[in-house]
Amino acid sequence: MTSPIDRFRPVASAHRTLQELAARFDLEVRGAGADRTGHVEIGSVASDDRTVGEGELFVALPGARAHGAAFAGAAVARGARAVLTDPAGAALLADAAVAVPVLVAADPRELLGPVAAWVYGEPAERLTTFGVTGTNGKTTTTYLVDHVLRALGWKTGLVGTVETRSGDRVLASRLTTPEAADLQAVLATMVEDEVRTLAMEVSSHALALHRVDGLVFDVVGFTNLSQDHLDFHGDLQSYFEAKATLFTQQHARRGVVVVDDAWGERMVGAAQVPVTTLRVGPAADAGTTGAATADWSVADVVPAPGGTAFTLRHRDGVQVRTTTSLPGHFNVANAALALTMVLEAGTDPRDLEAALDAAGGLTAAVPGRMEVVSEPPHAPRVVVDFAHNPDALALAIEALRPTTTGRLVVVFGATGDRDRGKRPTMGAVAVDGADVVVVTDDDPHGEDPAAVRAEVLPGAHAARDVAAAAPEPRHVVVSEVAPRARAIHDSILAAAPEDTVLVAGRGHEVWQEVAGVDLALDDRVEARAALAARAARSGPSAPAAPPSRHDRPQTVQQHDPKEPHA
Ligand SMILES: CC(=O)N[C@H]1[C@@H](OP(=O)(O)OP(=O)(O)OC[C@H]2O[C@@H](n3ccc(=O)[nH]c3=O)[C@H](O)[C@@H]2O)O[C@H](CO)[C@@H](O)[C@@H]1O[C@H](C)C(=O)N[C@@H](C)C(=O)N[C@H](CCC(=O)O)C(=O)O
Ligand SMILES: Nc1ncnc2c1ncn2[C@@H]1O[C@H](COP(=O)(O)OP(=O)(O)OP(=O)(O)O)[C@@H](O)[C@H]1O
C-alpha cells in the first residue's frame, strides 16, 4: 500500500527477523505469532500509521494527544508485520486482539532511533554527519555547511525546517528534525543515493523527544540561545539542558560552540565531548573581543562586492578568507560556524579557501531567511525573514538599518498557542529598531488573533512612549493591521522607494493556521502582489497587478512546516 505521507524510504534494507530484534534489544514478545518470530522479517520501521508500508515494524508510542497503539490496527492493515510498544500500549493491543506479534519495552521512544538504525544497517556510519543546534541560525548554518561541502565536491544530504534533500531529490519537511524512524530512513536513502555527507538541524524538541537517538554526529555546532519554546521546555535552563545533550557522546564526536553569549560559554562547560570555540563578536569589534581566548575568531569584516568579506582565523595563525552574500552580521556568525564545523571534520583550510574562491564565496540562498523580494530605486526594499522571537527580530532589524536610507518598516506578529512571554518583548524590540511598526498576525493556531496582537501591542506602545520621551526623541509609528496579507499590502503601498519593509516571522512558510484551518499565505507572494500593485499605480506602462488574496484567504488542507501537525 502506498504511503499517504511522502517520506524518504530506502529501496533495500537488511531484513532482520523479529527474533534477532528481540534478542538485540532485550524485548519481551507477546501476541499472535509470538512463537514464530524467527520467521517474521522486517525491512523498515515507522512510528505513524499513515506512513506504514508492507513489511514494517510499527512502533506505537505514547503521546500527548493519543497512544500510537490506537493506530496499530490501521498500521497492520497497511502492512505492518509487528508492533513495538510500551506496557500500556501492549494492554490496549491485547484488548484489540491485534493479529501480529507485539514486542514490549519500557520506553520504546528511547529505542526507536537505535532500532531503526539497526534495521537500516547503521546508515549514519557511512556518512560524514554535521548537526546544528541553537535558538536562531540552525537552518541558515545547515544550508551553509551544505553549500561548503558541495563546493568541496561532495554529494550532500540535508535535513531541516524547510526541506529534506538526498542528493537532488527533495521533499518539503514536516518537522525541523524528523521523528527517529523517519530520520533513519532518510539516512538509509542517502546511503543508497551515494550521498557522502549530512548537514542537519537538531531542534531542542528533537533532543527532548529522542528523535536523534541512535545517531552520533561527527561534528555538532551551537549557534546561540535566547528565549523561545518555553511553552514546551518550561524555562531557559531546561531549554539549555535539552540543547546540551547534543554535546554528549551519545550524540556527537566533537563540537564547535559560538561563545559570543554566556550560553555559549556554559555550553563549553557542559559539553562531554571535545569542543572547539568560535568567537565572532559584535559587528563593531569582530575579531577583537575575547578573540585571544577562543580557538577560532572572525576578523577583517568588511563590505565586499556581493556581500561581506571576513577572515576566520585560528589562534595558531591558520586562516580562511571568504565572503558571504547573506545580509547581516549574524550571518557572518552562521558562515563562520559552518566553516569551522567543516574544518573540524578534517578539511584542509587551503582546500576550503580554494573551493570557496571557485564557488564565489558562501552564496547559499536560504528560503525565507533575509530573502530580498525587491530592491530600490523604483520600489522599496522588501525583505522576508523568519525572525519569530525577540533576539532574531532585533538582529534582523539591526542588519537592515545601516543600508536603509529612508524609514525602516517592520510587519510582524507573534505565534498563538506558543510561548506567550515573548509577545510584549517582540513589540518592544521592533519599536527599538524600526521607524514604523505594524503589528499583525503570525500563526494564531487555536488562539483568537486579536488576543495575540493585544499581548504584543503593550510592549510596542510602552517602548514607543519611552523613545518619544528620550533626550534625543524618536517618534515611532505603531499600528495594528489584520489580516496579515493586508498588513503586508498596505505597508508596501505606503512605503517610499528609499524605505525598507521587513516582513518578519514566517519566512518560507506557505500555510497560516487560523482556528485549526490552514490558509494559503506566502509572505513573498503577498509582497510581490503589493509591489505589482504599486507599479500599476505609478504608470500605464507598468505591468498589471496580479490580484492580492488579502481579503479572501483560501481554505486548504492541513500542512504547516513551522508548527507542524502529524
Ligand atoms: C511536542 C512535539 O513535538 N510533539 C510531536 C509528537 O507528538 P506526541 O508524541 O505527543 O504524539 P501524538 O500526536 O500524541 O501521537 C502519538 C503517536 O501516535 C502516532 N499517530 C498519531 C496520529 C495518527 O493518526 N496516527 C499515528 O500513528 C504519532 O505519530 C505518535 O507517534 O509526535 C508527533 C508525531 O510525530 C508530532 O506531530 C508532534 O509534533 C507537534 C505537533 C509539534 O508541533 N512539534 C513542534 C513543536 C516541533 O517538534 N518543533 C521542532 C522545531 C522547533 C523549532 O526549533 O522551531 C521540530 O523539530 O520540528
Ligand atoms: N546566528 C543568528 N543569530 C541570531 N539570529 C539569527 C541568526 N541566524 C539567523 N537569525 C535570525 O533567525 C531567523 C531564523 O533563522 P534560521 O531559520 O536560520 O534559524 P533556526 O534556528 O532554524 O530557526 P527555527 O528554529 O525557528 O526554525 C532568521 O530569519 C534571522 O532573522
Automatic annotation (TrEMBL):
The keyword Cell wall biogenesis/degradation applies. Its main location: cytoplasm. Residues 132-341 form the Mur ligase central domain. GO terms for biological process: cell division; cell wall organization; peptidoglycan biosynthetic process; regulation of cell shape. The modification N6-carboxylysine is found at residue 243. It is found in: Cytoplasm. Belongs to the MurCDEF family. MurE subfamily. UDP-N-acetyl-alpha-D-muramoyl-L-alanyl-D-glutamate binds at residues 176-177, 203, 211. Pathway: Cell wall biogenesis; peptidoglycan biosynthesis. One of its GO terms (molecular function) is magnesium ion binding. Gene3D superfamilies: Mur ligase, C-terminal domain, Mur-like, catalytic domain, MurE/MurF, N-terminal domain. The keyword Signal does not apply. The lineage of its organism: Bacteria, Bacillati, Actinomycetota, Actinomycetes, Micrococcales. ATP binds at residues 134-140. This is UDP-N-acetylmuramyl-tripeptide synthetase. Its EC number is 6.3.2.-. Its cofactor is Mg(2+). One of its GO terms (cellular component) is cytoplasm. Carboxylation is probably crucial for Mg(2+) binding and, consequently, for the gamma-phosphate positioning of ATP. Residues 368-507 form the Mur ligase C-terminal domain. Residues 45-106 form the Mur ligase N-terminal catalytic domain. Catalyzes the addition of an amino acid to the nucleotide precursor UDP-N-acetylmuramoyl-L-alanyl-D-glutamate (UMAG) in the biosynthesis of bacterial cell-wall peptidoglycan. Residues 532-542 have a biased composition (Low complexity). It is an enzyme of class 6 (ligase). Residues 532-566 are annotated as: Disordered. Residues 548-566 have a biased composition (Basic and acidic residues). Keywords: ATP-binding, Cell cycle, Cell division, Cell shape, Cell wall biogenesis/degradation, Cytoplasm, Ligase, Magnesium, Nucleotide-binding, Peptidoglycan synthesis.
